[in-house]
Amino acid sequence: MGRTDILVTGGTGFLGRTLAAHLPEAHFLGSAELDLRDGAAVAEAIARWRPRVVIDLAARVGGITANMAQPADFLVDNLRMAANLMAALREHPPEHFLVMLSTCIYPNEVADEQYPMSEDLLDAGPPPPTNAAYALAKRALWQGAQYGIPYTALVPSNLFGPGDHFGSEQAHFLAAAIDRIERARVAGDPVVEFFGTGRALRQFILADDLARVVAALVERGPRNETLNVACREVRSIRQMAETVAEQAGYQGEVCFSGKGPDGQYRKDADPSRLAASLPAWASIETPFEEGVRRTLEWYRNHVAAR
Ligand code: NAP
């Protein structure tokens, strides 16, 4: 294949598949087509494609258990992917390098008055020990994003939505909650019990909203800044489970065992800079309840139906 206008690495994952609906003309790349850990292959592919826009969604992503069990693998794989891509793009700079970071890479804790966190705090302290390796590799990619190539670095909060990783080890809380509550409803189980206290605070946004932000930024061009992509409202894990139960029509009880880790108590990010840089964000953001409704519908039609 010759030149590619828009290249999406990590294009076969949850976010990549969601983005495909908004950028159908882009080339969505998976690891089978190009393993980003292979520096020579990456250099050759970028020299051949010379993309105008590169959207980097690729990452070795995993749940807490996998991150804690194989930290070196997460560090080395993600660093190699980032370094190989940066080295190749330095030779053939695109007009816009759009980098996907994550609120997981923020410091484990900041002072109370610093929440929600602004982008200036990104490397103001060590990341959470539960995903430190992944976070450090992403922070390295962020430094690379500022290396003379026109860029936009996005720092999204947790994602959910149609096409999410349901029932897998990689599932975030909301996908896991939808899966477990729906199964309980269908089976008529009277109780669904989750680990932890349910008190931890999180922001979840629809992957489709983030995909629309990416498409809008491709249109507008590089902002040369780092932008949180998160909702203003912060909810406890318990509130989110209750919303899922209500929307699913589950009549049983949702409870938290108090056992097991809660993870970080909070890591909420401030979306003010995004709102200023991309005024369209105000009309893009989907209310949480509507997002849960759409995700449940997709789950019933695609996952439960299987
Ligand atoms: P995902 O579903 O796990 O997809 C990961 C993607 O990375 C896949 O396309 C995968 O390709 C690709 N990849 C992994 N190893 C690779 C390698 N060695 N070479 C080339 N490609 C490789 O993740 P996602 O949820 O879509 O996340 C996309 C991005 O958003 C990631 O950078 C993630 O850190 C960030 N993010 C996600 C969330 C979230 O809640 N999901 C929140 C914040 C930030 P194959 O499948 O073909 O192997």
Strand content: 5-15%
Class by SSE composition: alpha/beta
CATH T-level topology of the domain at 6-163 and 203-233 and 266-286: Rossmann fold
Helix and strand sequence = EHEHEHHEHEEHEEEHEEHEHHH
Mean pLDDT, to the nearest integer, reads 94
* Unreliable stretches: none
Gross geometry: globular
CATH architecture of the domain at 6-163 and 203-233 and 266-286: 3-Layer(aba) Sandwich
In this structure, how is the largest beta sheet organized? Answer: 6 strands, parallel
Q: Name the CATH homologous superfamily of the domain at 6-163 and 203-233 and 266-286.
A: NAD(P)-binding Rossmann-like Domain
Bound molecules: NADP nicotinamide-adenine-dinucleotide phosphate
CATH class of the domain at 6-163 and 203-233 and 266-286, named Alpha Beta
Count of β-strands: 12
- The portion of residues assigned to helices is 40-55%
Using only CA atoms, what is the Rg?
19 Å
Distance separating the two termini: 36 Å
What is the count of DSSP helices, taking H or I runs of 4+ residues?
A: 11
Strand order of the largest sheet: 2-1-3-4-5-10
List keywords for this structure.
306 residues, alpha/beta, Rossmann fold, six-stranded parallel sheet, two-stranded parallel ribbon, 11 helices, 41% helix, binds NADP nicotinamide-adenine-dinucleotide phosphate
TL;DR?
This protein has helices at residues 14-19, 39-49, 64-69, 71-91, 132-145, 173-187, 207-220, 237-248, 272-277, 281-284, 288-304, and strands at 6-9, 27-28, 53-56, 96-100, 151-156, 158-160, 191-194, 201-202, 204-206, 226-229, 235-236, 253-256. The chain is of the alpha/beta class and 306 residues long. The protein has a domain at 6-163 and 203-233 and 266-286: Rossmann fold, CATH 3.40.50.
